[in-house]
Design goal:
Length: 287
Amino acid sequence: MENIINVTAGKGSSTSFLILGEDKTALIDCGMAYCAYDLIRNIQQVLNEGRRLDYVLLSHSHYDHISAVPYLREVWPEVKVMAAAYAQNILTKESALKTIKELNSQSAHYYGFDRVIDYDDSLMKIDQKVSDGDLLDLGGASITVLETPGHTKDSLSFLVNNEVIFTSETTGCMSKSGKVYPAFIISYEQTINSIEKCRKANARYIVSPHFGFISKSETPVYWEKSLRAVNEARDFVLELFSAGFDEDKIYKEFERAFRDEECRSLQPNYAFELNNRGMIKAIINYR
Ligand SMILES: [Zn+2]
């Protein structure tokens, strides 16, 4: 486990972990733009023996997981950025790149920073697509790709050294109090399947996005909690829908019931709203 190092920077960003193989190094997710230089400093402190960053693996194309990519390329121009094919395609679209930049700027303000040092959109791209079952050999360490859609179409989980699973946001977000927040946006059915798939990978340790390593006591019950959180959210939405509430009213009720203090500290309002309006739509459409 000493070759898996938490290098996360900034609030609200995805967790970022550096995997050190004997030959190569890889970073799993890289967070928002406003804290990219802090992330780079954290990585450099680990890579102090003249090693470089070889790969970046992205769990999906949301801005809070990918936005340090242009800055990482400045320091390590040969780094290879990998993600699902759908993510690769999204990052060729001008509208998506614009949204990513806007959300980065909003987040910088939300977390108390005046501005983000601007980056070149042409550097925000995927160099190589990966898909289910792909294996990245780092020499004495390995990363296996698991497609786990549900949060987004391009959500990937990563199994490191066959013992640590970096679950995608599809399985939800763990919080300090031990509560799992549901985070599925595009499909209820795919989410359930993806949680089962992660569970079957039978990893000894779990890393939850925006949280980190799950404690020993929580690990055996994590998948159950994750399923429960998804079903609870679905039941809540469907009950209101059958009572005649429209999507807007359902969102307001959902926010009142699920947006507690801890959730507020984990995610800015607009991100919560964007994700959960998507989820409500997905639930209603799947009935
Ligand atoms: Zn996301």
